[in-house]
UniProtKB/TrEMBL annotation:
PROSITE patterns: RIESKE (PS51296). This is Non-heme iron oxygenase ferredoxin subunit. Residues 13-108 form the Rieske domain. The keyword Endoplasmic reticulum does not apply. GO terms for molecular function: 2 iron, 2 sulfur cluster binding; metal ion binding. It comes from the Bacteria. Keywords: 2Fe-2S, Iron, Iron-sulfur, Metal-binding.
Length: 110
């Protein structure tokens, strides 16, 4: 699991429980102004912004292929581990968040 301790001076937000994200799937989670996509790849959790950087597509409605999410709008692809563009027409990376797991809950650092 990708779970690094989050420094005390950073804001930590609880998103959901690990069992709410089935293995090999992605779920949209909203927290305040944040709209996020939470991924489970072989029991390892990742979080990105949900909005595609190319258009109005929702990444949580896309297809997940290993560590690659394909946007449902134009088919652009991103690596969910670091947000890097993995396929056109996207040109800008998607924002990712550091993830930690505590007591079965998924947290991100802001």
């Amino acid at each position: 699991m990708t779970s690094q301790p989050i420094p005390a001076d950073r804001a930590k937000i609880s998103l959901c429980r690990t069992e709410e994200i089935a293995e090999g799937s992605v779920v949209k989670v909203e927290h305040g102004d944040l709209v996020l996509a939470v991924y489970n790849v072989d029991g390892e959790f990742f979080v990105t912004d949900d909005l595609c950087t190319h258009g109005p597509g929702s990444l949580s409605e896309g297809e997940l292929y290993g560590h690659i999410i394909e946007c449902n709008f134009h088919g652009g692809q991103f690596d969910i581990r670091d947000g890097a563009v993995a396929g056109p027409p996207c040109m800008d990376p998607v924002k990712t968040y550091p993830v930690s797991i505590e007591d079965g809950r998924i947290f991100i650092e802001l």
